Fold this sequence. Notes:
The complex is a heterodimer of chains A (243) and B (230).
Chain A: H1 2-5, H2 8-38, H3 54-81, H4 84-116, H5 124-143, H6 149-162, H7 166-176, H8 196-242
Helix pairs in contact in A: 2-8, 3-4, 3-6, 3-8, 4-5, 4-8, 5-6, 5-7
Chain B: H1 2-25, H2 28-48, H3 52-84, H4 87-93, H5 98-127, H6 135-159, H7 166-193, H8 199-228
Amino acid sequence: xxxxxxxxxxxxxxxxxxxxxxxxxxxxxxxxxxxxxxxxxxxxxxxxxxxxxxxxxxxxxxxxxxxxxxxxxxxxxxxxxxxxxxxxxxxxxxxxxxxxxxxxxxxxxxxxxxxxxxxxxxxxxxxxxxxxxxxxxxxxxxxxxxxxxxxxxxxxxxxxxxxxxxxxxxxxxxxxxxxxxxxxxxxxxxxxxxxxxxxxxxxxxxxxxxxxxxxxxxxxxxxxxxxxxxxxxxxxxxxxxxx
Amino acid sequence: xxxxxxxxxxxxxxxxxxxxxxxxxxxxxxxxxxxxxxxxxxxxxxxxxxxxxxxxxxxxxxxxxxxxxxxxxxxxxxxxxxxxxxxxxxxxxxxxxxxxxxxxxxxxxxxxxxxxxxxxxxxxxxxxxxxxxxxxxxxxxxxxxxxxxxxxxxxxxxxxxxxxxxxxxxxxxxxxxxxxxxxxxxxxxxxxxxxxxxxxxxxxxxxxxxxxxxxxxxxxxxxxxxxxxx
Lengths: 243, 230
């Protein structure tokens, strides 16, 4: 399947059809999710209205981790099969993942001020999320640090794969160490410990955020494909002028 | 089989000897790094105010952070020279396994740059008013952790081979990787301070060091091959 999709032209054909519907569907999910989370969901008995920050915080945290996983997977694809499209995909994922991890940290600290009484605590989950952001940043910087683009792609892919050790630390930090951060309440062995009325907007937001970032990634990849084509055309023109 | 192993260890020893010899021809690197470390240590009493209790609390962390910061400038040069004058190309095309050479690079860097810092660390501890009972544990934890730090540094310096402004990029890339070492290393003395056994943190630190000892030569060799393929 990957071989089949890895052809840039086929990728473009498929994504051209997918793109508009993806945008519409993801926006619908986000709009409905926002409506439910802001107006039509109960207040938390302890946290009051501040619990509504969670509906942005949790999806962006999940996406920041999930996008890093996909970044590492596409880096492996690039290093092993050396397909340029995999590199385009990972370099399009990186800025979006970095934005989501920043969004997680910002919403988390906005929530933390009224709840914990402080903007920031140095507990394991917050710190590991911050480090995830630095891995994204390192990937982006290393990707652009070389004269020839291929060199940066390869080195940055290796960095992305090394950084994957951070993901289990983020996931399990709240279980391993007794931190100030809430333990997970959705992905648990004995079912989610969260009320259905809260689970509905949260699920809508997670799906909406996921589809929207998929849309952004596709747009990014297409832009980079066009960029590459332009570079190739310029090279061709230069060659013609020379000869 | 036996001859293969003995020749690999010969290669390893020869390369460690070569690196130490070439480094010892100009001691300026080592001296400047120890000087840098001393200056980092001096900045803290100046910044915090010369209050003994405050310094006592932060001393352990300051020495660890100082160690990580002090070696940053030298890491960039670790492979750069050999890369630029083509020595790494020669090694990579020869039948000598590049992984062994990378391991020897990491070990010789540790011997040459970090051993002086380990030897001088009790002096820093006394300067920062650390309790005497903590100093042996500081030396033990630093000797274990610094090997991991130099191996991560080796991979980092292989990562930026041929990059523009690699020296600025390097700390951003490798300091996130060094955080577990710092946490467990500082934890050894934290455990002593609250009268608990330091072995839990120390063994985790040693385990991490062993993991890096295994994977770092392979990652570095892979990165050097990528850099040479350019």
